[in-house]
């Protein structure tokens, strides 16, 4: 099983894409500290983050634990519909990311973790891809922001609907982070590898996509990335 983060950027160069794509291959290691929880809490308190708790919303809809309030958004209402569509979810995204008058925040980012859940909840692949298309128009083209989507894939997968969504996302993404375990099996010093694909070919040039491969080790509060062959076990 492999996980892939697909980044769809605005017409301008994405800072996120540059940050990942410009790691030098000669660098021995890069360490990222996992302090995201406190950062996200602070962002939410400052109005920079809008979080949709999908599991709670689904349970409320399925078991009727929350009374419907007139005018209150129900982003996941497709779960209880006979012919599900994701218009309500898109409306929630557009409303949440559109800056109010006086807001100085620019370049919004939409994080979807993970897109396969929508398929599991009954949405058709076409509906999911339509949702991403409209989000690209609203977030990338109109608001000059970025979309980051998590999907899962497997070479031996028989889930044709999921593979259709994954392949479509990879085709339209500016940056792909493909994370997978080691093909050789378990190693205490190396937990897997990440392939960074920057889709230079999308710019309609004769250049090939830029591909970089790193290995990583997950620790208690950080993740260390290093070039292949430079793990502690080898050095």
Give me some keywords for this one:
31% helix, 235 residues, 8 strands
Could you explain the architecture of this structure?
By secondary structure, the protein is an alpha+beta fold. It is 31% helix and 22% strand. The protein has seven helices and eight strands. It has helices spanning 15-21, 36-45, 54-63, 87-97, 116-120, 125-142, 160-172, and strands at residues 2-8, 29-33, 109-112, 146-153, 175-180, 192-198, 210-218, 222-227. Strands 2-8-7-6-5-1-4-3 form an eight-stranded mixed beta sheet, with helices on both faces. Strand 7 and strand 8 (222-227) form a beta hairpin. Helix 4 (87-97) packs parallel to helix 6 and helix 6 runs parallel beside helix 7. The radius of gyration is 19 Å and the shape is globular. The protein starts with a strand and ends in an 8-residue tail after the last strand. 20% of the residues are buried.
